[in-house]
Known about the structure:
Elements (H helix, E strand, L loop, with lengths): L4 H11 L7 E2 H7 L6 H9 L10 E2 L16 H8 L4 E2 L2 E2 L2 H4 L5
Parallel strand pairs: 1-2
Antiparallel strand pairs: 3-4
Helix pairs in contact: 2-3
This protein binds a DNA duplex (13 and 13 nucleotides) through helix 2, helix 3 and strand 2.
Amino acid sequence: MKGDPFSQDVYSMCKRIPYGRVTTYGLIAQSLGKPQSARLVGWTLNQCPVNIPAHRVVNRLGLLSGKDYFEAPDLMAQMLQSEGISIIKNKIQNFEKVLWIPK
DNA sequence: AAATGGGCTACCT
DNA sequence: AAGGTAGCCCATT
């Protein structure tokens, strides 16, 4: 858990992701005014407290790049599926449909 | 202090 | 269309 403003922004942004939708690291970075810091967002979320729905954040291809960081290997996928998102082999289906653009 | 590597991306083969 | 390279910014060695 980090306390700097950027991390806080990342956290609050994640909390704003609607149920059943996802977004990407890059978009979050961008919406925070740091388009080059997608990786930072990744790192930050890696460290994120449990109350943040980090499972709703994927890479720009709709791949569950972060699933290895969850308790169980497929926890991330399961959570997403339980929200109505279909996932096949780490890849979100209808990515464009469930993608949420931060604003 | 410098190099390496990551929950990334955008370009360039 | 798929794979390699180069910037990105921080954390860890």
